[in-house]
Amino acid sequence: MPWLFDLAPPDPAANLLPCDGIVNDYGPLFAPPEADAHLAALLAHTPWRHDEVVIHGRRITTARQVAWVGDAAFAYTYSGVTRTATPWSATLLAIKRQVEAAIAPISPIVFNSCLLNLYRDGSQGMAWHSDDEKELGPETVIASLSFGAARTFAFRHKRSGEKRKMLLQHGQLIVMRGATQSHWQHALMKSARVHAPRVNLTFRTFRTFGAAG
């Protein structure tokens, strides 16, 4: 599985995928002291709860913990379970604005929601999946920001099985856009060598249907 990066500073305009999608690497968005402060605040003040998924009709509680926040009480259904968004915290709003400012030169966007994931150590990960729910719309833009332990993040092409991987560092921002969710899956790999927590923020534009449009 080829690595997606080298030791050179990332070029945010460069596409890290070979085909059928776009992933841009912005590198660390925060200096270490600021990233440390954000991690501590997120760990202490986020209303974490263990996630649930439905597999073969059975509701399973995951070791991973999550939180779903947004501009309104959006009802977001994935893995067979519906979650209702809670309001933004001051910390998350400040982080969101910095993310939006960082990616504006390539794709100006205002995110209206964020899914947070907490992995207590390397024994917890995320299986192969795509963020392709209808509420996110076609060619959705997802900004993924990592705090805490460095973890291996991988992509797998749905048709060819081709894989790419990268090591996401403390404070690092990547953005998935274009047809990425239609053609690629992604996963967070487990590792017995990781003993510290990681918090991942995925900023999204959630669409509502019906009267709200």
From TrEMBL:
This is Alpha-ketoglutarate-dependent dioxygenase AlkB. Gene3D superfamilies: Alpha-ketoglutarate-dependent dioxygenase AlkB-like. Keywords: Dioxygenase, DNA damage, DNA repair, Iron, Magnesium, Metal-binding, Oxidoreductase. It holds the Pfam family 2OG-FeII_Oxy_2. One of its GO terms (biological process) is DNA alkylation repair. SUPFAM superfamilies: Clavaminate synthase-like. It comes from Allofranklinella schreckenbergeri. It comes from the Bacteria. Transmembrane segments: none annotated. GO terms for molecular function: catalytic activity, acting on DNA; demethylase activity; dioxygenase activity; hydrolase activity; metal ion binding; oxidoreductase activity, acting on paired donors, with incorporation or reduction of molecular oxygen. The keyword Isomerase does not apply. Its cofactor is Fe(2+). Residues 110-207 form the Fe2OG dioxygenase domain.
